[in-house]
Amino acid sequence: MPLDHSPPQTSPTRADNDVDVIIIGAGISGISAAYHLQRDCADRSYTIFEAREALGGTWDLFRYPGVRSDSDMHTLGFGFRPWSSTTSIAQGDQILQYLRDTAQQTGIAAHIRYDHRLVAADWDSTTARWVLQVEHGGQRSVFRCNFLMVCAGYYSYRRGHSPVFPGQETFTGPIVHPQQWPEDLDVDGRRITVIGSGATAITLVPALADRGARVTMLQRSPTYVVSRPRHDRLSARLTRIVGATRAQRITRAKNIALQRFTYRTSQRKPDKVRSMLLEGVRNALAPSIDVDTHFTPDYDPWTQRLCLIPDGDLFRVLNSGQAEVVTAEIDTFTETGITLADATHIDADIIVTATGLELVTLAEADFSIDGEAIDFSQTWTYRGVAYSDVPNLVSTFGYIAASWTLRADLVSQYACRLLNHLRDTGTEIATPRLRPQDHDMARRPWIDGFSPGYLERMMPRLPAQGDREPWTNPQDYRIERRAFLKGDIADGAMVFDRVRS
What we know:
Elements: E1 18-24, H1 28-40, E2 46-50, H2 58-61, H3 73-76, H4 92-105, E3 112-114, E4 117-124, E5 129-136, E6 139-150, E7 155-160, E8 175-176, E9 191-195, H5 199-210, E10 214-219, E11 225-228, H6 233-242, H7 244-268, H8 270-284, H9 291-294, E12 307-310, H10 313-320, E13 323-327, E14 330-334, E15 337-340, E16 345-347, E17 350-353, E18 357-359, E19 366-369, E20 372-373, E21 381-382, E22 386-387, E23 393-395, H11 404-425, E24 429-432, H12 453-458, H13 477-486, E25 494-497
Parallel strand pairs: 1-2, 1-6, 2-3, 4-19, 6-23, 8-17, 9-10, 9-17, 10-13, 11-12
Antiparallel strand pairs: 4-5, 5-6, 7-18, 14-15, 15-16, 19-20, 21-22, 24-25
Helix pairs in contact: 1-11, 5-10, 6-7, 7-8, 11-13
């Protein structure tokens, strides 16, 4: 599909602080939303507010060694601008450049207002507009829009999740969280303990070892890991046979199907998937490394996210002795390292707390309707993108078991269908509301069957799922593709209305 370089039409009579659509966030989700608005809703004006001074979201924020994608780039890339390299697992700087190029080539970059942080949003029922308090340069300004798209992700950009460890004030070396990685941190020849077992820790350990550090990965409990090649060999072969464009489409479709198959098989046959994963780890590691202790979780596969190891880099540094893995409880930090619960001491010059993210809802802003605060935990999710009784608001949360961008693109296209329905029906307000038959629904977690700590900490702040459509959040690409792109917009639960004079 060719890129649409034309800017959207704008209203010549409307002030700059009053537009049709405002997008919060200029990362993957925000760029996707802007592109689809330009292509499918060219009669709407829009602005993007980005709280930071650069676009890219995650890929501009994280600068720790080795930062990379943890899903393949043929699905993490946009559907409208396919990832053109055969590199399937890309480094952070490559992804950031891809996002910058996309924003420039499509004209989206001109719509971004940097250092504009959403503080509060109040829906004004008398005008059918969101009234936004936006902070810029230490000053607050008021902006208005009819429709709001929150594309700011799900974690705080101000801080990472950093539990307080006993005795950590006594440690004499640097304690670093990956989200605030110092540019001048010298790791060559240093003893580094990385606390954590998730994607960040598994990325950091080989990257630090390759920079000359002696690394210990200290984990309280193991995570499932799987090795995959950085380069997609099938994509490379297809490119030679059918050309780059068709090869990209085939590779993307193949990877979407593989992600879905792996996740669904993990749910249906967890024991079989567990055995396959652990067999792969045993074949990759030296016999001296205890797989049962260090790589065998006590939960089923895909109950938490499966961690990707490109080209087996973690296995390589463990086998070579450049790094080690320790599974144990921490007793206390000391001046020179960490004492474990069994009294073993790990010597360290630097401690890295790869302990996760601090999650937030809706850009850490305050939301209200006619001055009455919205408690999103008391709402119901509408298809995982909107909230019961909250008008003209769509927020983007990607897939937990597949690439974020797959869902971001679907949500963007659905929002455009919703906007066009408003225009075509002469209405101004779209509000999800429970139907009479929905009031007996039992409340279920916003995401079922997925229990990593970062989501469990966030779940009490999120809306509930019901037991019937459209009050569900299936997290299934095939189901949602049909619902978002072809489902009935006027389904009886999404209520359309006009301003009442």
